[in-house]
Amino acid sequence: MYRSPSSASLMRQSPRLPARELSAPARLYHKKVVDHYENPRNVGSLDKTAKNVGTGLVGAPACGDVMKLQIQVDEKGKIVDARFKTFGCGSAIASSSLATEWVKGKTVEEALTIKNTDIAKELCLPPVKLHCSMLAEDAIKAALADFKLKQEPKKGDAEKK
Amino acid sequence: MWGWRAGALLRGWGRRLVGAPGRRLLSCHAASQAGNSAPRCWKCGSPRGPARGDGLFCPQCSALQPPDPTRDYFSLLDCHHSFRIDTTKLQRKYQQLQRLVHPDFFSQRSQTEKEFSEKHSTMVNEAYKTLLAPLSRGLYLLKLHGIDIPEGTDYEMDNQFLVEIMEINEKLAEAQNEAAIKEVESTVRGTRFGVISQDLHGDFSLRGENLNDVGGMEKQKQGWRTKQVYENCESGEEDGRERMKE
């Protein structure tokens, strides 16, 4: 039986500050971040071959984080489902988890307006983790772009064959 | 401070800068004469002069001097300024330095020296840790040459590579037993990771002596990004094994 990965398995480190942050004043993960880590929302996958599914896959090499965000859109252009899988720090996981919560119920156009600063503010991310929220914003945009590409007429495919 | 710093610079770069050191020392000295105070011991006020014990102690009163935070790790641990280093020698130098600066040896000294010793010891630890592991050593070397891997999304990352990393991480997250983890391990280490590592180390070592090759450095940057991601896979393996114990 497939056991969907809990966020505990998604997180490489326990909620401890990575070594490079030890020079900053000691800081714990904000409770909102811990909440997303312990009670993940929308972890999983959608069928990436489906025409109404957009998949965004982004990476941040400096910290080695990888984030996948998928959206399912109905005929009216409204996002009806979203899933994510993120391998990285707690802030990255929380940012993508929150992103999937926020895109649900929005149209494709509305989802484009989600900003990393809003995500960071909602999760009270410290300055060193702002890039995690940016990664989530990029994942949303990548998923939307992938979806839009799939809606385009197929003459491109015909040329490839 | 100039004399001390110039001394440190000489030790690190002297081998390569034939003729230049004398000139550099003079110009530092000139600058110090121009207005800055000459390097003096904080305790006895005598000029620092010729370095004793790696420039750590005052030649007159033996008081521990403050660390130079701008000193690069290679010169601090007396290593060749290149990727290929002698890790045995590194370890020996590390232990030697800690025997001189560790706070345990300053418990009876003044508060100022205690604080300096803490800073020295921390810096030596940081330097040793950075230079010991190939990944951090490579990244540090790139940083010294002004090449930083910026934080945040890399928009040019190869999609296929990301898919591969996702799959590796997912397999690790789902692994139910040691055999499954070992399988992922052999994939990561054996095929791609192993090949990339060898390429990087070999390439870096060859290039190590000529780090002005911009094209080469860009390629190094790409390579080290990849290596970082693979190292994260390794910690994923560790986490998997931790999970098995629960």
Describe the protein.
The complex is a heterodimer of chains A (161) and B (246). Chain A is α+β, with helices and mostly antiparallel strands. Chain A is built from seven helices and three strands, in the order H-H-E-E-E-H-H-H-H-H. A three-stranded antiparallel sheet of chain A has the order 1-2-3. In chain A, a hairpin with a 4-residue loop joins strand 1 and strand 2 (65-73). Chain A starts with 6 loop residues before the first helix and ends with a helix. The model of chain A is unreliable at 1-5 and 11-26 (pLDDT under 50). With 246 residues, chain B is mainly alpha-helical. Mean pLDDT of chain B is 73; it is low at 1-36 and 207-212. The interface between A and B is medium-sized, with 25 and 30 residues.
Summarize it.
The complex is a heterodimer of chains A (161) and B (246). Chain A is α+β, with helices and mostly antiparallel strands. Helix content of chain A is 41%, strand content 16%.
Q: Count up the helices of chain B.
A: 9
Order of helices and strands of chain B: HHHHHHHHH
Q: What's the number of extended β-strand segments of chain A?
A: 3
Question: For the CA atoms, what is the radius of gyration of chain A?
Answer: 17 Å
Sequence of secondary-structure elements of chain A: HHEEEHHHHH
What class do helices, strands and sheet pairing of chain B give?
mainly alpha
> In one word, what is the shape of chain A?
globular
Assembly form of the protein: heterodimer
Count of helix runs of chain A: 7
**CATH architecture verdict of chain A:** Alpha-Beta Complex
Pfam families (chain A): NifU_N (PF01592)
Keywords (chain A): Iron, Metal-binding, Transit peptide
GO molecular function (chain A): iron ion binding; iron-sulfur cluster binding
Domain NIF system FeS cluster assembly NifU N-terminal (chain A): 29-151
